[in-house]
Design a protein that fits this description.
binds heme C, 8 helices, single chain, Cytochrome Bc1 Complex, Chain D, domain 2, elongated
Length: about 170
Amino acid sequence: MSMEFNKILAALLCAGIIAMLAGFVSHKLYHPHHLEKDAYEIAAAESGTGAGPAVAEQTEPEVIDVATADVAKGEKLAKVCASCHTFESGGPNKVGPNLFGVVGGDHAHKSDYPYSDAMKAEHGKKWDYDALNKFLWSPKKAVPGTKMTFLGIKKPEDRAAVIKWLDTQK
Ligand code: HEC
């Protein structure tokens, strides 16, 4: 093989690798919100509102029926919360506060947890089903400035199930 041919081959390989990398990088750059977008689309399809923007603009969650909710399903769904919360009596605070007895309790119900100023400002208000429905639907919309970085539970029956199970932890 001549030197020239080797150079051309190396150049072609290089170009190929650069093209692959560029494709990968631009994919990461331009599609970083896949999950969020898909979640909106699923929510839109389920609520029958069609396009995503209508759901993004939704300012209130659907009303829920905790009485008829599936408590076993709620326990399963609450595994998502367990990365940041414990639920048992006397359980430690993690990224988020221990949630034992939170249903019916005050906002910022634990005295040994460093809440955000936004959550502290709500102290005195009760965590009833309605408040929890709003918060678990969209923490950021319910308590602007909260440090609970959780996108929310879009399905009304899933929120009802989690709240029903949470209400057994007291
Ligand atoms: C990524 C971590 C994270 C996840 C996941 C998470 N939370 Fe939280 N949660 C927090 C943090 C942090 C706070 C404190 C918020 C503040 O001070 O603004 C909080 C606060 C709360 C509060 C208010 C507690 C109080 O004493 O007023 C409730 C209720 C709550 N979370 C329920 C849930 C439930 C139910 C889930 C699962 C569906 C969940 N959280 C998932 C981090 C999380």
